Task: structure prediction
Amino acid sequence: MVLSTTTKTSSIDSLTNQDQGGGPKKAGLPKHLRDAWTAIAFGGRTVQFTMAHTSSSSESSGSSGSSGSSGSSGSSGSSGTSLTSFGNSLTGNANINERFGRSVAINNNGSKIAVSTGPTGGNSNSPYVNLYEVSGSDWVQAAPTIGSPNAGNTFGGFLQLNNNGDVIAIGDQDQDTVYVYKLVGGSWSSIGSLQGPAGSDNIGMPNTFSINSDGTIIAIGTSSYPSSQQKGVVQVYKYSGGGTTWNQLGPTIEGTVANEVLHVPKISGNGQILALSFSGRNGNKGEVEIRRYSNDDMSSGGTWDIIGSAIVPAGLSAHDRITCSAIDQDGRVVAVGTPNQNNFTGFLNIYAYSKSDMTAGGTWEQLGATFTGEAGDFLGSAVKLSKFSPGDPTFVAIGSSGADNNGANNVGKIEIYKYSSNFPNTGGTWSQVGIVYGAVADGGQLARGFDLTPYNTNDSYRLIVGDTDHVVDSKDRVGKVDVYTIPSS
Result:
């Protein structure tokens, strides 16, 4: 990755609830605030981070700084964290505009990444998925390319990796299927595929499935069930340990009335905690339920029981349609919000369960203040959480697919925030420690295609970012993937 000259930006975004300057819907900032921020461009993509004072340094680390944000509340905390590029950039084939980085995933310690492509020009080339691993300071392909087993353009529309990076779940919306592969002896072996019940559609599209830490439990779900009623359905499956057989864990969970829109299943690392989004409840305001599987050994015959009250943030309006955007490894922390609220401003809350054993009788309590964007930002387009553990730093990555930057509209951005207090203390604040912007106006795809390592490894976390709209040699939609390091201190 090439480091270009350091440049000043014209904004601070969520520190003042004004987005990156110059766009017709955004307001610029005074010079003393502009001088408090620095941006570094990596191969056309901007990485922005907090600075305590104006600096002439153009080093990629660009560290030492202060002042973060917790969205609409305006509360702040100190920040000395920056994002630095890790390894080489990966780009797609410019000859066929393959939209490289359509979906991305990263394993628990950031040593392996998975990348898919999109439908290419003329649809003459089917999408594919590659796995890469760290070799020195480079990303190199670690296994054979996985091609679509069927004709169509939706294979790889959504990816999930297990913690070791040796099990991958790949969605294919055209086939209403999630394909699962395991890496054995350097080659991929199919270990089965999952589909919803008869009458369900769109299994395999983004956020319709979720994999646990070791890749043996997968939740699948869709709002398109039955297609004429939109009740929604979620099922959880456990791998048998051999062959291609997956057995259902607990009963099928369905919406109870038409247009309840049960979807977006999110599952914890051990597979025992399941977050369910009912975006059609409460006059389309939506609500989120968290359930726990009754058998601690994850054996068959158990039930999915609700823990705590349903999560319904204050201030919702009709048609906000909130969802659970993310769940941490322990299932104790969830991100709940919607990009639809208030002229597509978007908002996001982080909640923690009051009982560490995740049994019934606890309550869901908000961590820090509410995150909000600007009109048209679509804040919360995608969200990723690190693992929340007492004594460890904790991060959230938030995508805003409609965000502007330096006069370019809808480039999209990903903001990284760090929680100030020792979890599970609920009285902390969220400090912004970095931003990644897209490079193409009217793109915004990078704000949907990213992933965050759950664990603190070598005093850092890693963020993978895919941007399908990246331009190479004046050719659109070639696509690009970068990985960044987030220091834990």
